Amino acid sequence: MKYRYPFPFLVHGGDYNPDQWVDTPEVWDEDMRLMKLAHINSATVGIFSWSLLEPREGEYEFGWLDTVMDKLAANGVSAILATPSGARPPWLAEKYPEVLRVEESGVRNEFGVRHNHCLTSPVYREKVRHINAALAERYRDHPALTMWHVSNEYSGCCHCPLCQEAFRDWLKKRYHGDLEKLNFYWWNGFWSHRYTSWEQISSPKFRGENSVPALKLDWRRFVTEQHISFFENEIAPLKAATPDIPVTANLMGTYDGINYQALAPHLDLVSWDSYPVWEQGENMKSAYTCGFTHDLMRSLKDGQPFFLMESTPSVVCGRGVNKLPAPGRQALASMLALAAGADSIQYFQFRKGRGGAEKFHGAVVDHGGGENARVFRQVAKLGRELERLAPVAGTRCDNRVAILYDWENRWATDVYCGYNNDRRDYVEECVKWYAALTECGVGADIVSETADLSKYRLVIAPCLYMLLKGAEERLASYVKNGGRLVSGYLCGVVEEHDLCFMGGVPAGELKNVFGVRATETDALPAGMPGKAGYNGREYAVEHVCDLLQADTATVLGSYQSDFYAGTPAVTVNTYGEGKAYYAAFRNDGGFVRDFCADILKDAGIGPDTGITAPENVFVKKRGDYIFVLNFSDREQTAGLDAEYEDLLCGTRRSGKLTLPVCGYAVLKKTDSTGGHDVCKMDQ
Ligand code: GLA
Ligand code: ZN
């Protein structure tokens, strides 16, 4: 057996922690038997194995892992081998305290938990390099090895003296050694904060400097770069020994501590861990947020398929109340991932641990053991379905619309002080537009404002508060050349150091692009909305809104309340060959949905497929495959415009497609006409 990425099949598997069962190796044989029954073809091993692999400094014990890797290979299960830096052995922390993380308080953590390490410590980097090199040397030619899983969920930051020094060095480079430049960009004249030496600078802390937005932004950029260099340090020995084996790191969706758009180019493929909250009922908020995040993860590497590295096969354990999701929910969520471009469905974890913090977290194999448990049977059923869906592997989504989402803008939106400090909701605002597109049957890429936009017919920028270098020109030329751009409120307010643009908002040429000026911004207290009219309907104005002066723009809607009643709230402007819309107010009701439908119509962007679906049924297209996913709380019927092959049933369908709660179908248009077999989906 020798698999090579990209695989011609969908990967099904997940975190496998045989190191927890090293004293009862008969469990490993039972695991192999159960993996087969669950149609599992991949196991991610060694994520937290450091204390077993290197029980004493420099003494490696690979015997147990050799056995496990051999068993995996013998059973046709590919191994995704992890580097163990996510958690370290006690001896390492005891001997080299500098590897432990220092929190914002300035106090060094004691040994414990995981992810508790300094990103800068040369000792830690060296120890990680050594263990990674040993793993890579040992398994470079092992037939089970297919991919490297680097560390685990990189996150957090460290405030130790080494990190402070590294931060200052990073700042020196960024500001070309010119402290006056830094004083200017951080606006340190305010509150008498001008530095006279680099040594006076420290990371943002609640007991220290926490009022300078530009410092907070630079710190987050620095933390991202420390993660990238930590990652590069980790993969150097892997790449040296196994240049053809791809490396990934499991990301966490919209986690805001690392700019994944900056990290992604360093990964061979993106993978991420998805744990949506499925309460009872429709859960549409979760469904949209989850779909949005999958699309964001796919877009990190220009549409390349990603891996769903972790999900729970049943329940989680860390929330206040850990409700069992409805049967079928996990499978439906898995189909959503596939529809968005995932080439894998993987779980945390294969077998539940007996002890430790996560012993009640859902797993494929429960403490009761065996293949007859409900969750196991669900997983096995999904495994069989994934085998039928093999042709989907490697296919790409081709979208005409993009939503702008970037970590830089999110950070900037989070750190300023003003307007509505209670309701910034960067992610939620982006998801709102995503939901509106989904309801119209239109898929979207989720890209940064620095991405190449030329391939999109419509670009939606819900929160374009910060304009990074070149963004103004790029957006203007996009519209000039025929693109359609939509902006929400607070557009083009600051440059990359959170310095306000002089001369009004939106910045520079964007005033001409949108044909408006935002002269002031109002914030509305919770429960005290204003009103705006658009297209003969009335909408609540909530949380925040810009007051506009229309220069060349046509007014499509106006405020109907407060001292600015009668002034523009929604506008459109022709600029070059394109059009730019400005939606100046926030509304948590149906405005975005109605407005989005109008814009799509005006742009001539119809649904991605000919399938008509009722509310809360997603229709998502990936390559030639169409996923119809029933997220509603009742049986639903979609209308098929042509004849389709149903991949899961292996039959042909036309006319109507009825799906039970949590039901799904994966369809591909057929060329020929044929019999209409009735498919009995065993949901
Ligand atoms: C994360 C981690 C896993 C496990 C799961 C479940 O995604 O990567 O190791 O802790 O959460 O809680
Ligand atoms: Zn540190």
Strand content: 15-25%
CATH homology superfamily name of the largest domain = Glycosidases
Structural class: alpha/beta
Gap between N and C termini:
33 Å
Short description:
This protein has 683 residues and is of the alpha/beta class. The chain folds into 3 domains: 11-87 and 122-158 and 245-392, TIM Barrel (Alpha-Beta Barrel), CATH 3.20.20; 401-603, 3-Layer(aba) Sandwich (Rossmann fold), CATH 3.40.50; 608-683, Sandwich (Immunoglobulin-like), CATH 2.60.40.1180.
Structure in words:
With 683 residues, the chain is of the alpha/beta class. The chain has three domains: 262 residues, Alpha-Beta Barrel (TIM Barrel), CATH 3.20.20; 203 residues, Rossmann fold (3-Layer(aba) Sandwich); 76 residues, Sandwich (Immunoglobulin-like), CATH 2.60.40. The protein is 29% helix and 20% strand. The chain is built from 17 helices and 25 strands. Helix 5 runs parallel beside helix 8, helix 8 packs antiparallel against helix 13 and helix 14 crosses helix 17. The longest helix is centred in the N-terminal third of the chain and has 29 residues. The protein is globular. The site of zinc ion (ZN) has 8 residues, from helix 6.
